[in-house]
Recover the amino acids of this structure.
């Protein structure tokens, strides 16, 4: 009786949560534009993927078995479980308006609702593309029945992974709450692991060519035969089908059994997590003595003192800069090149990477959500004697204080490692220009789409810049910096003849960059001023 | 205690708000249809019973041996300075948090028995738990559904409440566009929609304009007159003075005074003409008070 009631409440909660997600997107035009942009980009990829999937299906007709099927089939439940754990920790570990919901229905109903809404959201985002690819493959294979058998096989797997992943994710959150040092360590390990995966992915092709046979041996050893047999059931009504085995059926039954068991474990974990408090508040670093005194050179100008305030807050709450980890996705390929280089080339590459990293930090650290970051104090800031220019300059200076030391320091520090002093100094000088350009550009770009609400980002609840703004910044500043670095490099190595035309092009590019950056800065100032008038 | 409560009810019935009620525009009548949702009250007359509650957050002591016995039908004003432990107490009494030691029973039901506790209590936290993406009507309909209130009955009640709280005209607007007062009134409605036996209110009138604050205050009185218990935590002493039968003062996680407003004033030795504010300042201003002396009034 209570199970039926909890299921009904869970369905109602899932529906409400899903509807809220849709409305959050629908009520905000800029979010809708972001979604439209994402659909355009990924829709384009999908359009290219469909013919490939069809061709793969055609090829598979003549095969006796799909290559690497065992390891891939084994990886599917592992991937699904990992995804469920990550999503739990990142997004659905708690329900909004918890005091209302938790005093209205049983925690089990809340677990049903949260897991159900998450599955619905994932289905809404990925359901159509996945179905389209499977359909193209099935048509190529000449077995439309795959469209029925594949979901039938996938459903128990997905349900079991969602339930067990939710229980595991909540369990980890409970453990991290008791062991905050372990949580910090896990975050650091997570970032490093992701970097390793990104860098490793660059070598994957090379490894496959060089160690293909060894890798396939290793992969076949990692295959869990019953799981592979179960996944193979999806191909039962196709030319690739093989007769069902007892172990495959056992895995299916295990999945069906794991779903309620996982939900029971998740309910237990949820009751523990939601109705208890963190054991203690860390107050060891929560006090400071003395006045607010900015050191030189920050103390010279009001913008510098404002910048110092940003820097002090950043040092005390570094979790607010979780968005900076996005750079890892772009550093991965650079890391590969670095690892394959040596001698002078390595030192020069390190110097150039320093310029790129410093430039990124100069804008991304404090500039990509200026209005959103200042929102709690804007009524105070805008009613002080300081002009909007000073407030915006404060953010620019704070960004430069972080970016410039990296952009200038790394090239100069690479001299002892073998970089030519002339090149290092030139790159450091270039870093000054790119940092200024990035810092000025960022405040304007960030003012276009301010984000005011905190959200979970990499396990931290904080106000982070819009993903669209972040990606645009990475693309514009990344491409701009690469052009500058390449031109400087070619000029230094003599590959670029410094003719009047080359000077004109370089000057034109520099002027264009400066105008864009200054225009962006002025836009940010205008947004602050308009906020005053609003 | 029971006698005091009865006295308090009489006081309410005689009506501090009699004048307000006589004005039809200001009249708020909480229609408690307890027939359909009445819960079987245990034989005990205590609505809330907390025994020796202790709660620590690391080195900080939030509650230090707090015991409460609140008879059914009482409006219990719960006072204390910032950081005294009021919100922690409410979270423990509603079962949203667990004490390090001690026990809580509400209407004879243990606070750990969530399934039995849920229909008996309503809770309005300081920050109204509302979904900005819903309209007031949708929000209340959603809560009624989760409360298993039959649809027709729920919709009748929702319309009545929306009308009584002057929200009917804006009921289809998204809550994200509501003012603080409108949000607070919506949250109040959702906390009483299921006719709870005990209503926990955390700063229900904080930041509201006088009209909205009066609406909530009158609703509290009406709700208690209908037989429910109201546990009212607030900083606004005039509200407590106006509606509470019993007053308790929490300081540093301990109960330093309890009784009727007159008794608390007498206890603080602030004189008959002194206000509750004077008494509050007196009992919370002396941290060096001997423990036995401080809790004697409880």
């Amino acid at each position: 009786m209570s199970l039926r009631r909890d299921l009904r409440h869970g369905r109602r909660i899932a529906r409400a949560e899903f509807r809220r997600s849709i409305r959050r997107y629908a009520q905000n035009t800029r979010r809708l534009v972001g979604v439209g942009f994402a659909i355009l980009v990924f829709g384009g990829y999908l359009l290219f993927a469909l013919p490939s999937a069809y061709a793969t299906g055609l090829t598979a007709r003549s095969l006796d078995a799909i290559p690497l099927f065992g390891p891939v089939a084994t990886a599917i439940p592992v991937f699904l479980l990992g995804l469920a754990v990550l999503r739990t920790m990142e997004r659905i570990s708690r329900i909004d308006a918890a005091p209302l919901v938790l005093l209205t229905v049983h925690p089990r109903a809340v677990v049903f609702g949260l897991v159900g809404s998450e599955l619905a959201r994932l289905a809404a985002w990925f359901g159509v593309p996945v179905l389209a690819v499977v359909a193209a493959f099935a048509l190529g294979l000449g077995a439309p029945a795959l469209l029925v058998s594949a979901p039938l096989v996938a459903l128990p797997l997905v349900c079991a992974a969602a339930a067990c992943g939710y229980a595991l994710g909540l369990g980890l959150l409970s453990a991290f709450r008791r062991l905050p040092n372990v949580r910090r360590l896990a975050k650091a390990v997570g970032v490093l692991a992701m970097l390793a995966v990104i860098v490793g992915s660059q070598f994957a092709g090379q490894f496959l060519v060089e160690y293909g046979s060894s890798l396939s041996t290793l992969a076949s050893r990692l295959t869990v035969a019953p799981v592979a047999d179960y996944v193979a059931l999806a191909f039962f009504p196709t030319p690739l089908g093989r007769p069902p085995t007892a172990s495959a059926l056992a895995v299916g039954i295990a999945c069906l059994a794991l779903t309620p068991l996982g939900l029971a474990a998740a309910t237990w974990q949820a009751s523990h997590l939601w109705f208890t408090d963190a054991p203690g508040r860390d107050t060891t670093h929560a006090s400071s003595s003395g006045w607010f005194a900015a050191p030189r050179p920050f103390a010279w100008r009001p913008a510098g003192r404002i910048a110092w305030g940003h820097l002090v807050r950043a040092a005390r709450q570094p979790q607010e800069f979780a968005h900076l980890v996005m750079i890892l996705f772009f550093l991965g390929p650079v890391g590969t090149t670095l690892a394959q280089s040596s001698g002078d080339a390595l030192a020069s590459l390190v110097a150039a990477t320093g310029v790129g990293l410093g430039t990124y930090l100069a804008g991304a650290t404090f500039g990509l959500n200026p209005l959103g970051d200042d929102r709690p104090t804007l009524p105070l800031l805008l009613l002080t004697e300081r002009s909007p220019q000073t407030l915006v300059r404060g953010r620019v200076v704070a960004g430069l204080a972080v970016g410039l030391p990296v952009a200038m320091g790394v090239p100069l520090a690479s001299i002892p490692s073998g970089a030519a002093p002339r090149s290092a100094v030139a790159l450091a000088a270039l870093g000054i220009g790119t940092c200024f350009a990035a810092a000025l550009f960022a405040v304007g770009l960030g003012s276009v789409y301010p984000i005011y609400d905190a959200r979970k980002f990499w396990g931290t609840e904080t106000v982070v810049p819009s993903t669209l703004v972040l990606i645009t910044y990475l693309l514009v500043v990344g491409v701009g910096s690469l052009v500058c670095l390449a031109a400087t490099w070619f000029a230094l190595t003599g590959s670029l003849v410094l003719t009047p035309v080359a000077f004109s092009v370089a000057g034109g590019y520099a002027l264009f960059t400066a105008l864009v950056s200054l225009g962006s800065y002025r836009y940010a100032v205008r947004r602050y001023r308009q906020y005053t008038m609003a | 205690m029971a006698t005091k409560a009865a006295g308090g009810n009489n006081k309410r019935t005689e009506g501090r708000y009699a004048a307000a009620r006589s004005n039809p525009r200001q009249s708020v009548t909480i229609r408690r249809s307890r027939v359909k949702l009445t819960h079987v009250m245990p034989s005990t007359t205590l609505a809330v019973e907390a025994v020796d509650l202790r709660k620590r957050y690391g080195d900080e002591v939030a509650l230090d041996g707090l015991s409460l016995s609140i008879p059914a039908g009482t409006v219990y004003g719960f006072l204390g300075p910032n950081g005294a432990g009021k919100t922690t107490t409410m979270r423990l009494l509603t079962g949203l948090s667990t004490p390090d030691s001690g026990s809580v029973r509400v209407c004879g039901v243990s606070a750990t028995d969530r399934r039995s506790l849920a229909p008996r209590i309503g809770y309005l936290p300081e920050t109204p738990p509302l979904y900005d993406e819903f309209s007031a009507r949708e929000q209340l309909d959603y809560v009624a559904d989760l409360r298993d209130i039959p649809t027709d009955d729920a919709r009748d009640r929702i319309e009545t409440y929306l009308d009584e709280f002057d929200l009917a005209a804006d009921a289809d607007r998204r809550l994200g566009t509501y003012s603080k007062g409108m949000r607070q009134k919506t949250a109040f409605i959702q906390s009483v929609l299921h006719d709870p036996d005990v209503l926990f209110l955390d700063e229900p009138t904080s930041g509201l304009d006088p009209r909205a604050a009066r609406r909530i205050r009158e609703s509290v009185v009406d709700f208690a007159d209908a037989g429910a218990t109201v546990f009212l935590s607030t900083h606004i002493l005039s509200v407590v003075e106006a509606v509470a039968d019993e007053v308790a003062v929490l300081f540093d996680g301990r109960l330093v005074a309890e009784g009727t407003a007159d008794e608390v004033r007498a206890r603080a030795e602030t004189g008959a003409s002194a206000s509750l504010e004077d008494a509050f300042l007196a009992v919370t201003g002396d941290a060096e008070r001997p423990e036995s002396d401080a809790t004697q009034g409880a």
In short: Chain A has two domains: 2-274, 300-533. The radius of gyration of chain A is 27 Å. Chain A has a mean pLDDT of 86. Residues 300-533 of chain A form one domain.
